[in-house]
Amino acid sequence: MSHSTRSHQLPQQHAPETESLPPDEPGDGLPEEPGDEPADGPAEGPGDGPGDGLSEHAPDDPQAVPPDGPQPEPADAPHTEAPPGGWRDRHPAAARAAAWTTTALAGALVLVTLLLPNSADRLTAAEFVRIPVEGVAGAALLLLLPPTARRVAAVLAGVALGVLAALDLLDIGFNEVLGRGFNVVFDWVLLGDGASFLQDSIGRAGTIGVEIAAALLVLALLVLPALALVRLSNLMARHATRAAGTTLVLGTAWVLSAALGLQIAGAPLASRSTSDLVQARMDGVSATLKDERAFAKEAASDPYHHTPGNRLLTGLRGKDVIFTFIESYGRSAVQDPLMAPGVDATLAKGTARLRAAGYSARSGWLTSATYGGSSWLGHSTFLSGLWIDNQQRYRTVTAGDHLTLTSAFRRTGAWRTVGIMPGVTKGWPEAKFYGLDHVYDSRELGYKGPKFSWSTMPDQYSLAAFERLEHGKPHAKPLMSEIILTSSHNPWAPLPKTLPWNKVGDGSVYDSIEKSGKNPVDVWQQTDKVRTEYGKSIQYSLNSLVSYVEKYGNKNTVLVFLGDHQPVAKVSGDHASRDVPVAIVAHDPDVLKRISDWHWTPGLNPGHQAPVWRMDSFRNRFLTAFGSHPGPAPKTSR
User: Fold this and answer.
1) How do strand 320-326 and strand 479-485 relate by DSSP bridges?
2) Where are the beta strands (DSSP E) in 372-501?
């Protein structure tokens, strides 16, 4: 038989017809895209194609397939089966469903990262049904690029989208807590402070869990958008005609929507939010760098810089002056319908108790440079007379020699200056800037009791330690003291209780009080509970301070106390002001006469119509009221 005849009698071998990735486009590790599934026939395996068991010898080779077809195997030959194909071949319907689902999720992820707002109040469904111009432009670019460049561009764009999404989430968190967005230049250090706060609030184990979850979220934001864009770009390349048409339609729709001003739930249908946010961040970085240079010049210019001590604070000589900051004591505490009744009653009783002890008080409002946290920004603004609303300004001013209220007292040489800082748990080099002769931090106050969440010790103990270590001792000079009260610090659970002063001791008496207190996690589950406990914490701090003046004050005592900032938005509300109460208490009537032109409200509770000043204006007003005169010392005649 001729070669052609024998060949015609060979059984026909048909390879499955499949559509596969082009040789230069490896897959992305995800299920195949829709329209790329293999046919439903058997997958290739051993026995198909060259080397599959068919003879490759010449036609006349006696070992060739006989003309009448394959012969049956001998009865004693071992039986073998071709291994089954992949899971797509065995379950084609499931493979197609998985491919469609994965592609849809990839598209949704890219859309969400493009349209994600940076404020919680804009997290609505309508925000995510808009047309992002960046997506349209990106799709057009990917269609034009060659395969390798397309894959690189898709990965880089995906990582960039993930970074922007992470920054948007940081903005949301910072706005909720601090009332401002995240500053990419100098706010990274605050993440460490946040971790420390979490550890104090929910314990080490809970904090580690949160940190792991945050790390996984960041990793997912960096990886998943990149994989999603690679998948979508491969699909677009396979269906270039349809992809180009869809891109053209979406681009036309964006232009028309922008021209007509079409909106969805108040948001423009034609979105360019990603590019706007990128531009805003670039502008923010530029503004931050410019602000740093401008602020350095401002901090170096101080009318009191060269004022000699004998021309400072002449109206307070001989007085024991106490500056006290009450953590998170804001306008909301005295005017919010839920919290104000208890706090206002405490202020009214405190005014009456002080009056009975021979003291008078005046109060007003200051607008803090910070909100919800970063207390040191409020402290430094109040004491320096400079608006310090970010970390870089704080570093700049504390690295210099700008005059503060506390350092002014030290410059006179007429006071001993001390600080009671229960919130400081390690070295605090800023003490030199503030002009404090000695700082008692949490390690030097002798406390042997438990922490109350973030607060290292109750306010009453801090004041008792101040009396024991400084105020109650004989001194050659009067005292100027800066005291930070921390019991009203977030998370406001558990809370200490007011005790008789002779029962405070070394603080071990608070063990049972802390154990019987409320759990922060339970309190924070409901907004009303958080606000209620916050109000109680302010009442405790105010009671401790008033009680201290009653018991240990004297005719030379002058107390200035204020809040450093409003509490977080969960307590104060989404659009709360940054105002905090401030009051001056004195036994000597001449002290309050010096501030009569301030028109502050009599008593500890500032009225609704009391003056509102920026916090940085207080230093100069205070120095002026109590006899300070700016400028160099007058020249003496010979």
Assistant:
1) parallel
2) 416-421, 438-441, 479-485
Radius of gyration of the chain (CA): 37
User: How far is it, in rounded angstroms, from Cα 343 to Cα 561?
Assistant: 15
* Token pair in block for residue 583: 């009051």
Both tokens of 160, joined, read: 């960039």
Provide DSSP, 154-188: HHHHHHHHHHHHHHHHHHHHHHHHHSS---TTT-H
- Nearest Cα to 132, choosing from 273, 281, 280? 273
Q: Which residues lie across from 581 on neighbouring strands?
A: 365
Distance from the Cα of residue 496 to its chain's centroid: 28
pLDDT winner (highest mean) among 114-123, 227-236, 414-423, 430-439: 414-423
Of 420, 422, 417, nearest in space to 432 by CA? 417
Instruction: For residue 295, tell me if it sits in a domain.
Output: no
> Is the distance from CB of 570 to CB of 178 less than 8 angstroms?
no
Say how many domains are in the chain: 2
d(CA 268, CA 259): 11
**Which range of residues forms the domain containing residue 226?**
95-285
277 and 327 in a single domain? The answer is no
DSSP secondary structure of 307-344: --GGGS-GGGTT-EEEEEEETT--HHHHH-TTTHHHHH
571-607 confidence digits (pLDDT tens):
888 778 999 999 999 999 999 999 999 999 999 999 8
Assigned domain for 130 exists: yes
State pTM to two decimals: 0.71
Is residue 162 over pLDDT 50? yes
Q: How far apart are alpha carbons 366 and 560 in whole angstroms? A: 13
Average pLDDT over the chain reads: 82
Distance CA 120, CA 570 (A): 12
On whether residue 408 sits in a domain, the answer given is yes
pLDDT tens digits, 96-141: 888 888 889 988 899 888 888 887 777 888 888 888 888 888 888 8
**Does the residue 10 lie in any domain?**
no
